[in-house]
Amino acid sequence: MQVSDIEWSKVEEKVAQTAFEKAYEREISTLVQEVREQASTVSELNDVWQLHNFLSARRHEIDGKYDYRYSVLIFVFARLVKEGWLHLNELDGLATDKLTKIVALTRM
Fold this sequence. Notes:
Blueprint (H helix, E strand, L loop, with lengths): L9 H30 L5 H21 L7 H11 L12 H11 L2
């Protein structure tokens, strides 16, 4: 069975949704803080464009990363764990096979 064919129980769907939202909130909170810090140092037009470029790049990255399709969620969780936005214990409640795949992917 391929990762994209894995079925999710109702309990797993709830665990996944909660974990996904926590990771997203953490990353967005960090982004907002970074923007505040960068904006506080804006003193000329070039600084504005640099902030714009930073925001554009981050938006593209975040929009691509947070994909809540069950067919790719194992990969999304592995990336979020690897990047530190999500902790493995926040995925407690997922089936062992899913957790095993997530852990294996974080080591790649």
